[in-house]
């Protein structure tokens, strides 16, 4: 009894789709491994530095020194973008730690940092849209950061411009929102439950081993 040619090609089609899904799942697993390793190992050291910077920025804001609060908050924002988002996500995007390191050095050796240009596209790989993040007043976190807060910090640093308490408040809100919401979303996608286990290195990798805490700053 001969097989219906249409049925044969239909079976072949579904089998091919199944293979593609298996390949996609394996690529996803491989891409997430380097990101989890980076964050699991370095996350605590990065968090510690961010805590110090943000505490100093809040102290400056409460003490009546808003320009120092703005510069501190933007420093924290750049640490979050660079060390908690772009660097680890690039490692996952390219699957190779060696290639990621070369590309990362190329990006961060430029006179004008390019990580801000890269950031919106990297979380999108995990169905996270940075444009969806809002501040308390409903404004876009990313638009406020790019067109208001970073230019204000640049004017302070390069031209000695003053800042208002409102500038300091928004800058600190941008920093905490980026850290608490965007980083937390990426972490959750990778299987980190930071609410239950706040220390990154106390999570376990795919083989059940805890990460060894290291620092990207040393």
Short description:
The protein is mainly alpha-helical. 69% of the residues lie in helices and 0% in strands. The chain has one domain.
Description:
The chain is mainly alpha-helical and about 220 residues long. The longest helix has about 60 residues, at about 5-60. It has 7 helices and no strands. Helix 2 (about 65-95) packs across helix 6 (about 140-160) and helix 2 packs parallel to helix 7 (about 165-190). It is globular, with a radius of gyration of 21 Å. The chain has helices at about 5-60, 65-95, 95-110, 115-120, 120-125, 140-160, 165-190.
Provide the descriptors you would attach to this structure in a database record:
mainly alpha; 218 residues
> Shape from CA axes?
globular
- Gyration radius, to the nearest Å? 21 Å
H/E element string? HHHHHHH
Query: Into how many domains do the coordinates divide?
Result: 1
Number of helices: 7
Helix content: 55-70%
Measure the end-to-end span. Answer: 71 Å
What's the mean pLDDT score? Answer: 81
Number of strands: 0
What low-confidence regions span 5 or more consecutive residues with pLDDT below 50?
Answer: 12-27
Largest sheet descriptor: none
Beta-strand percent range: under 5%
Sheet/helix structural class: mainly alpha
């Amino acid at each position: 009894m001969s097989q219906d040619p249409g049925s044969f090609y239909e079976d072949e089609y579904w089998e091919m789709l199944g293979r593609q899904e298996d390949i996609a799942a394996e690529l996803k697993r491989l891409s997430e491994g380097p990101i989890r390793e980076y964050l699991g190992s370095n996350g605590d050291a990065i968090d510690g530095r961010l805590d110090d910077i943000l505490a100093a920025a809040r102290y400056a804001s409460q003490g009546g020194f808003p320009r120092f609060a703005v510069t501190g908050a933007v420093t924290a924002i750049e640490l979050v973008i660079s060390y908690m988002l772009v660097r680890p996500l690039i490692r996952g995007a390219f699957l190779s730690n060696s290639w990621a390191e070369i590309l990362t050095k190329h990006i961060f050796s430029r006179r004008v940092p390019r990580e801000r240009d890269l950031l919106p596209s990297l979380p999108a790989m995990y169905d996270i849209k940075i444009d969806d993040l809002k501040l308390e007043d409903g404004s876009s976190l990313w638009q406020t950061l790019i067109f208001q807060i970073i230019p204000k910090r640049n004017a302070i640093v390069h031209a000695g411009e003053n800042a208002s308490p409102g500038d300091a408040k928004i800058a600190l809100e941008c920093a905490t929102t980026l850290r608490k919401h965007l980083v937390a979303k990426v972490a959750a996608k990778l299987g980190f439950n930071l609410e239950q286990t706040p220390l990154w290195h106390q999570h376990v990798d795919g083989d059940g081993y805890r990460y060894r805490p290291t620092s990207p700053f040393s």
